[in-house]
Specification:
The complex is a heterodimer.
Chain A: H1 2-12, H2 20-48, H3 52-64, H4 70-108, E1 111-112, E2 123-124, H5 127-134, H6 144-175, H7 180-188, H8 195-205, E3 210-212, E4 215-217, H9 220-227, E5 243-245, E6 248-250, H10 252-279, H11 283-291, H12 296-307, H13 309-324, H14 328-334, H15 347-356, H16 360-389
Antiparallel strand pairs in A: 1-2, 3-4, 5-6
Helix pairs in contact in A: 5-16, 6-10, 6-13, 8-14, 10-13, 10-14, 13-16, 15-16
Chain B: E1 3-12, E2 22-32, E3 37-41, H1 48-56, E4 63-68, E5 71-72, E6 83-86, H2 98-108, H3 113-126, H4 142-154, E7 160-164, H5 172-189, E8 192-197, H6 200-206, E9 209-214, E10 217-222, H7 224-229, H8 234-239, E11 246-253, E12 256-259, E13 262-266, E14 272-278, E15 283-285, E16 291-300, E17 304-310, E18 319-324, E19 335-340, E20 345-349, E21 355-356
Parallel strand pairs in B: 3-8, 3-9, 6-7, 7-8
Antiparallel strand pairs in B: 1-2, 1-4, 4-5, 9-10, 11-12, 11-14, 12-13, 14-20, 15-19, 16-17, 16-19, 17-18, 20-21
The chains are: A mainly alpha, B alpha+beta.
């Protein structure tokens, strides 16, 4: 009876329907599983080549075929495998400087109280990760959450803003004819300047007090603010204003300086890319738009921007990746300690900090977390840009 | 809308020292009546596209005037002239669908969504692409893209429709079909249409009025048949007609027209050196004829046949005569004699290349 009932009811039941969001992750899971299965099979096949049976098979095949001299055998074998020889230099370098460190960092992050000098550690576990995320990493060091917030905030404010600004400047540059080349050169100059040097110059701009000929002076930014009757702000120094959000510090004045710096230093490359992309747009599109009565604004948002969307998304993706790795600019602006006790610390700054302190375990754990975050961001980046750029 | 072009001139200044400024269009005067299909015809570099772009407002003339009806639009911006322009390579926006492309001019005019949709659909129906509305341009064939471009130009109900080499990017069969389509669309809408082409057959087949240009100067204006039958100079005679006209060096002496030693016609004109043009269909085979040609070979087309021959006075390597297929020619004749239809015979001055009447 039970069986019969089952037989009747099963086909009538529709397959369980998930909403779009859940279904997406189910599909994603299936895809990831498939990907791993594929890789596993490939590895299995690769190692099968070394097995006794496979070697015997090969030998049997060789015995059946024409008998070759030793030299000919070697030559044929060399020809078949010589590709490995050509990629060997790159492969060896990558193995030493990329693959080994990645694996070592992964393993090291699970070693508790690991000492880099002696290689001794207490045991295996997740303690490094827990301490990093909790901020329980001893005094004097950078705080992970602070560094993470700083990095994300600086990146997601400065990259879109500088891309937008670069777009507008490129449009302006594209519409002038006379001194275009000269302007192009001027806009590109910052790209050739060292980040630390630029940071130092910026820090001087924003300084509150300095002395010239025994007279106290303030930086140019504060002088300009003074013209508008504003009090000088300590933009980069030790008395820089800070808001507190629980334990989290929001040094807003320093943020402003860093964001302005990031936007400014990011512009040249972006302008170069966008400007050259615009130059390659067929002029007829603009003529057509003009005849059709499109305003400048419409032309910018409905024709120019979509046409150079591949370049824009490239800049956003690389800009965000670069932003997640920023370090030298912040050191240039705020000094070695990245502000007061790393209140302007970045993720990379965090890693360097703990490597410097000899507490490599925290650096390992931090780098793994950074890796995961960058991976997630890149994943969504790809999703978004794919949607926008296909035409 | 009536278009009147008065003393229109466009000079592109020289870019380098020592180079001459380019006179793309010189002192052009045309009156285009309302609702006509006008073709600007000429070899490449004759200023026909420049003229079209000056009509559209994308190029500004160096001097002269353009009037739409009685309004002077010479200095009016392109978007205010109410012209629809179809580009040679269509210039469809690749990131927009067909519908968005067609709607684009309407969106710029801030027309309401429902009305815009209705008008876009009407325009699409007119060019028969209403089922392609959600496609992107790169998913369309060349002919379909062409139609979208025309729909985009028509959707804002322009006063004047301008087409730049509308058929040059299409294959031969589609070209025939599309040129009839353009004629049909122009008839249904009644919009004054100007189009540019270097293909005389294309222009002859659909134009109401044809403007033949050479090096920026208008050579002749008129209905296609009129110009064909009554070319005003050697260039026009040469440019129109397939197969092209036969040109001979000749002279007028004692009231007779001579090609080589043979007198082929009588004329009241004074003695001088001339070019004689005879259309291929202007020959009649006649053993008693006035012009002797050395036969090279005969091409049989079915409906008619071409006698391809040589003559020492001809300016072209061969002379082509088209005669009816039922005319019986003597087999293996090395030479044939022809009479010449007087209205297919044109005389041009050897120096000025102007027509002698």
């Amino acid at each position: 009876m039970m069986e019969e009932k089952d037989n009747v009811s099963t086909p009538a039941q529709p397959p369980k329907k998930h909403n779009k969001f859940v279904q997406y992750f189910i599909d994603l899971g299936a895809r990831i599983k498939g990907w791993f299965a594929g890789k596993f099979n490939a590895v299995k096949e690769f190692f099968h080549g070394f097995s006794k049976e496979a070697r015997a098979e090969k030998k049997a095949l060789a015995a059946e075929g024409p008998q070759l001299s030793r030299g000919e055998k070697f030559r044929r074998g060399f020809r078949a495998q010589s590709g490995w020889l050509f990629v060997a230099p790159a492969l060896i370098l990558m193995a030493v400087f990329t693959f080994y460190p990645i694996i070592a960092a992964f393993i090291g992050s699970f070693k508790q109280e690991y000492l880099g000098m002696t290689g001794k550690f207490k045991g295996w576990g997740f303690e490094n990760f827990i301490r990093v995320l909790k901020g329980d990493t001893g005094t004097g060091g950078a705080n992970f959450v602070q560094c993470l917030v700083n990095t994300l905030l600086l990146t997601f404010v400065s990259v879109p803003l500088s891309t937008l600004l670069a777009l507008l400047i490129s449009v302006a540059l594209n519409s002038i004819k006379r001194v275009q080349k000269a302007y192009q050169t001027i806009f590109f100059l910052p790209y050739l300047t060292n980040a630390l040097a630029m940071g130092a110059v910026f820090a001087t701009f924003f300084k509150i007090i300095g002395t010239v000929n025994n007279t106290e002076t303030v930086g140019i930014v504060n002088i300009v603010l003074g013209w508008f009757g504003m009090k000088p702000v300590d933009w980069v120094g030790i008395n820089s204003p800070v808001w507190y959000l629980g334990d989290l510090r929001i040094p807003w004045a320093k943020y402003i300086v860093a964001i302005i710096y990031e936007i400014w230093s990011g512009l040249p490359f972006k302008i170069l890319i966008l400007f050259s992309a615009m130059q390659s747009i067929n002029k007829q599109y603009y003529d057509a738009a003009k005849v059709d009565g499109a305003s400048r604004w419409t032309i910018l948002w409905h024709i120019t921007a979509p046409m150079i969307m591949p370049q824009i998304s490239y800049l956003l993706v690389t800009g965000i990746m670069g932003g997640m790795k920023q370090y030298s600019a912040i050191v240039g602006l705020f000094g070695e300690t990245m502000g007061m006790n790393y209140d302007m610390g970045t993720m990379v700054g965090y890693l360097y900090n703990y490597i410097g302190l000899g507490q490599t375990g925290y650096a390992y754990a931090g780098s793994l977390i950074l890796f995961v975050i960058i991976m997630v961001i890149t994943f969504f980046n790809n999703k978004l840009t794919k949607k926008r750029t296909t035409y | 809308m009536k278009i009147s072009i008065q003393h229109l001139t466009k000079i592109f200044p020289s870019r380098n020292k020592g180079e001459q400024a380019v006179h793309a269009v010189e002192d052009m005067n045309i009156e285009i009546p309302s609702g006509k299909l006008v073709g600007l015809l000429g070899p490449s570099g004759c200023g026909k596209s420049t003229t079209l772009f000056m009509l559209s407002g994308l190029e500004s003339p160096s001097s002269g005037k353009i009037l739409f009806d009685e309004q002077d639009v010479t200095t009016l911006a392109a978007e205010k002239r109410g012209v629809g322009l179809v580009f040679q390579n269509y210039a469809l926006y690749p990131h927009m669908t067909v519908e968005q492309n067609i709607r684009f001019p309407l969106d710029n005019m801030r027309i309401k969504r429902e009305e815009g949709n209705a008008r876009a659909l009407d325009a699409a129906r007119l060019v028969q692409i209403e089922d392609l509305m959600s496609r992107k341009p790169n998913e369309l064939s060349g002919g379909q893209q062409q139609r979208v471009a025309i729909a985009r130009a028509l959707v804002k109900m322009p006063n004047v429709l301008l087409l730049d080499e509308p058929l040059s990017n299409l294959d031969a069969r589609l070209r025939l079909q599309t040129r009839e389509e353009i004629k049909r669309i122009q008839r249904t809408t009644g919009i004054t249409t100007v189009f540019v082409t270097h293909d005389q057959e294309e222009a002859m087949s659909i134009c109401d009025i044809m403007v033949v240009m050479k090096l920026g100067i208008v050579q002749q204006i008129g209905a296609p048949q009129e110009i064909y039958d009554d070319p005003s100079n050697l260039f026009v005679a040469n440019f129109l007609g397939t197969p092209p006209i036969n040109i001979f060096k000749g002279k007028i002496s004692g009231g007779k027209v001579y090609i080589g030693g043979e007198a082929i016609a009588e004329t009241p004109l004074e003695d001088r050196a001339i070019f004689v043009g005879i259309r291929p269909e202007g020959f009649i085979y006649d053993p008693e004829g006035v012009l002797t040609l050395k036969v090279d070979h005969i091409e049989v087309m079915g409906r008619d046949k071409s006698v391809v021959s040589v003559h020492e006075s001809s300016t072209k390597p061969t002379v082509r005569c088209i005669i009816d297929s039922d005319v019986i020619l003597p087999p293996d004749a090395a030479e044939l004699k022809f009479k010449i239809k007087p209205y297919k015979l044109f005389l041009f001055d050897a120096e000025t290349e102007e027509r002698l009447r």
